[in-house]
Amino acid sequence: MNRNLKTFILILVSVVASLLAAEGISRLIFDPIDFLKPRRVPDEVLGYRIEPATGAHDKLGYRNKSLPDTAEVVAIGDSHTYGISAGASESWPGALGRMTGKTVYNISLGGYGPAEYLYLMETEALALRPKIIIAGFYMGNDLRDSFTAVYNIDNWKDLRKPEFESLPETGESEDEEGFSYGIGDWLAGNSVLYRLVSSSFIGDDLRQARRIRRGQQIVMLEDEKSGISTGFTPDQRLRGLDLGRADVREWLRLSLEFFGRMNELSRKNNIVFIVVIIPTKESVFAEYIEGNKALQASDKIDYLIENERQADKAVKSYFDEHGIHYVDTLGPLSRSAGAEQIYPNNFGGHENKNGYRIIAETIRKYLDGL
Prior knowledge:
By secondary structure, the chain is α/β, with parallel strands linked by helices. The protein has helices spanning 2-29, 79-82, 92-100, 114-125, 142-150, 183-190, 192-201, 204-213, 234-238, 246-268, 281-284, 286-289, 298-321, 330-336, 353-368, and strands spanning 40-43, 47-50, 73-77, 104-108, 132-138, 219-223, 228-232, 272-278, 325-328.
């Protein structure tokens, strides 16, 4: 019995030692910030934020290696600025820092919108004494996010209109995640090895299959001539861009109001404020999918692209009228769509490292001209 116990203990110690060694090697090969899952906690104004120093994020809870005393550039945005589908250094703020040699601090999180951008500018970005603040404006859901914040968070109640207060929230969130914290979450937040193994079983392809089983519409494009293989979610995108609806026009009004306030705050603090307009994947691939009757939901795709053009026109008109600097990334992304893989080859609507690089290059060129 003693011999069996000793054998068991020896095996257990060997397994634990092997796992610890594998974890150490994993952390040497892979950057923990790109794999560890940060913990989300409630916030009365933001709705939620990342708990500081979890998931290898910095002590404020953002996707940076560390918190600098000052930053020449602060980037604020949602998941398209956070850098979903790419490593932290491959996000457009990370790429912009390498291209310019400037300290670029990334304050962003999926699910945030213009209301949160303004709040983060007031409470955190200004403390870094930046010369430039860049806000990433994703056309796909930032309009809806503005509405969600204003009509659910009392901090923004001064912007509400009575006729919209009784409207329910429209469309599912792309960033839904509760605040429960079990053993799986602990492992995901502390073990790179666990994340490597689990991610191999829960990849984007399986997520896509799960969405299809839930009834979500995903339209695939396989263009042999250009080599494009990717998917689109026009139904989901259209819920945030259908300007034929009065509530969506209200969403647009609110978004522009927030950007106007951000611009005024920047002026008062002698900071250059720039908005980076990030288009939907559907608009980037318009050359290949607009008017393409061979595609499922072709009419819906066309309607979505036309609505985004109208929204884009209204946004630029407002920015021009209010003297707000903006960078339009649609052209550069569209020109690259048939030349290289700039999005995942599935439903994912976030740019990959190539797409983020193009956004960063477009911003850098704009900064060179200031």
